Amino acid sequence: MAFVQYDGHQFCLDCLEAALRHGQPDIFNTDQGSQFTSRELNGRLKEAGIRISMDGRGRALDSVFVERLWRSVKYENIYVRGYDTMTEAQTGLADYFQFYNETKPHQSLNYATPQEVYGG
């Protein structure tokens, strides 16, 4: 499968805008990747009144929950499905995230789904 280069900065801004349509968090925590330290993203976060938090450099354990999510995505979906096209990957991952958030019970949430706990 061939992947197209993407603009990580714009992708993060687009994701933030999409997320803000569903509510506003108090804090935005990321690693120190360049897409998260951009003036544009940080400016938009400040404009929205969202506190910015960044993990320490080289500190994967600071974002253990996100690391666990990506492990689940890879081992429960990407490696199993072996997508042939970007369109297949986008559709398959959208389906997986819907399953992950709305159907899959999470031990850390007392076997509830994220939608049940955080979805309102």
Automatic annotation (TrEMBL):
Protein name (Swiss-Prot/TrEMBL): Integrase, catalytic region
A Pfam family assignment: rve_3
InterPro entries assigned to the protein according to its UniProt record, in alphabetical order: Integrase_cat-core, RNaseH-like_sf, RNaseH_sf, Transposase_IS3/IS150/IS904
Gene Ontology terms describing biological process: DNA integration
GO molecular function term, any single one: nucleic acid binding
Signal sequence residues: none
Alphabetical list of PANTHER family matching this protein: TRANSPOSASE INSF FOR INSERTION SEQUENCE IS3B-RELATED, TRANSPOSASE INSO FOR INSERTION SEQUENCE ELEMENT IS911B-RELATED
Domain Integrase catalytic: 1-120
Organism, scientific name: Methylotuvimicrobium alcaliphilum (strain DSM 19304 / NCIMB 14124 / VKM B-2133 / 20Z) (Methylomicrobium alcaliphilum)
